[in-house]
Each structure stands twice: as C-alpha cells, then as structure tokens.
Amino acid sequence: MKKPKICLIFCGGTIGMVRNPSTGVLGPAQDASEILRLFPELQKIIQFDFKVLVNIDSSNMSPDIWTQIARKIHELYDLYDGFVIAHGTDTMAYTASAISFALQNLNKPIVLTGSLVPLNEIGSDGRNNLIYACLTATLDIAEVCIVLSNHIIRGNRAKKFHESFSALFHSPNFPVLGELGRPIKLEDWRLKRRDRKLKYEPRFDSNISVLKLFPGFDPAIIDKVLARKAHGIILEGFGPGNVPSNIIMQIEKCSKRGIPLVLANQMEKGITNLTSYAVGFEAFEAGAISSKDMTTEACVAKLMWVLAQTRKLSEVKKLMESDLAGEMSI
Question: What digits encode the pLDDT tens for the residues 230-244?
Fold first, then answer.
C-alpha cells in the first residue's frame, strides 16, 4: 500500500527545534532526518518531506509570513496528500485563520501543531502532538485545523485557552472535528476530501486597529485611529456587542469615510447580536458590521484578508458577514 506523502513546514516555535549535541543550544531542524530519527514509527506509514520556511518566535508572526506560508503550500499543493505546519502556540490561531482565507476550497488537510516542550526533551508534549498532526494530515479532512493533544479543531474557530498539555487550545463556538483515539473519531460536520478548485488569494492588509471597550472609554481613541488612516477597525463591545451612546457619532464617521467598523464582543463563548438591545441597534444603524460568532483571531485575519480584496464598504460588509471558510455560524 502506498504511503501518504506529507510535507512538514517549519515556521518556528518549540516543536520543530532540536538540541545541538555540541553546544546544547536549541535550534530548528535543518532536514527531515533530524526530526524523523525521533519518530521511527511514523516512517513506517508516512513519507515525509521537511521544509524550513522561517524560524521565529510566534510573537513575531506577521501577515507577510502568512502570505509566505500560503505561497509555499500553493507551490507544493499537488505534490502532497496533506500538510503539517510546525508553529509556536501564541499566534497559532491567527495563522490558522489566515491560511483558511488565503487557501479556500481545500481538498486536503493543512494541520498546525506546536508544543510547550521541545521534541527531544523529557516530558515533551511535542512528540504526541506531531504524531497526531501527521496522522490527521492523512485523514479524510479538507480544511485548516489545529491538532494539539488528541483533539482536531477547526483552525479558524480555535483559541489558545490554557498553558497546559491537555487544554492548550479549545473551540468555544464550534464542536471539535474529531478525536485521535482508539478508534479515531471524525465528526460528520468536518469538510471532507472532494474534488474542488482551490481558491488562492494570499494577500492581507494589516492596516487595521483592534480596540476593546471599557467603562470610561474615550471616543477620541477612535478619532485617533481614523487620523492615522486605518483601513478598518474591530471594536470589542460589551455583552452581545453593545456600545455606549457617546461613540455612535464615531461609528457614523467611520461609515461616512468608508472605513469598516466591525463590532465584536468580549465573551469567549459569545455571539455578536446588534438587535438585542437599543445600544447595540444604534451601532447597527450607524453602520457597524457584526462579527457574529467569530473569534477575535478569525475576525482579525478575515478583515485583513477582505481589505486586501476590496476597500468598497458595501462589499467589505457583505464578505465580513458571510461564512467564507467555516469561521462563522449561519
């Protein structure tokens, strides 16, 4: 039986590092053999290629690197049965969301994974995470997902939740896609491998601002964001997206200038509903766009992606309030 062919793309983070036997310093593995010698069991069932793209702490991840990742996968897309991205955990949910927009209509899985402890250290969670991620990349899944511990999570629904091996990420507004156990369980709501024409658009416009409301929030903060000529704003409101009355004027100002203001909420497991209360409805009438049940990470990546496609406010609103890659519930 032919082994599935998987491409492991290293983007930094702890999981792709090995310790130099001479210096004792951690650094990225330079070829597949350095990783595969730690996983002889995987070699029996999977054919690997290993690509080093960048070596950064994920705090330094950027939209430009999202574009590099998407381009690399697009370049290699027809050569592999699936892709695994080794990535630091801090910004993994942003990257997973971004790749889900840059590469739509997938017919194979793109799996992000990481670890808290390096692969060849005692007690590393990276060993199981990488094994599970590589196994997931061979399964009947066709979307961007995150695999840590034994859970398969839709990438643009994921949030970093806890600095623990078993609860590092969770999916507050969407059920997991599957669990890697005995046996492997895949849920019916996952996207499956089918013949689809890949939609490839890797550009992002990072000129946005994310603001969080708090009691006493000064409306002038929004004016300062507009003054720096931001192309879009995400505003995290109270409850289901409620805002104080003294910022309605600023929301109207954004609309008149053609600047999308996406109103999100501060609840981890929450939905933005601008028709629940008068203070939310005022914002809606002033032109605010609802984030619905997107995570902040997905909302940020999506707005950057949408703004790279169009700056026309009506089109931005339509795209932001549409489900493009499973990032929101309809």
Answer: 999 999 999 999 999
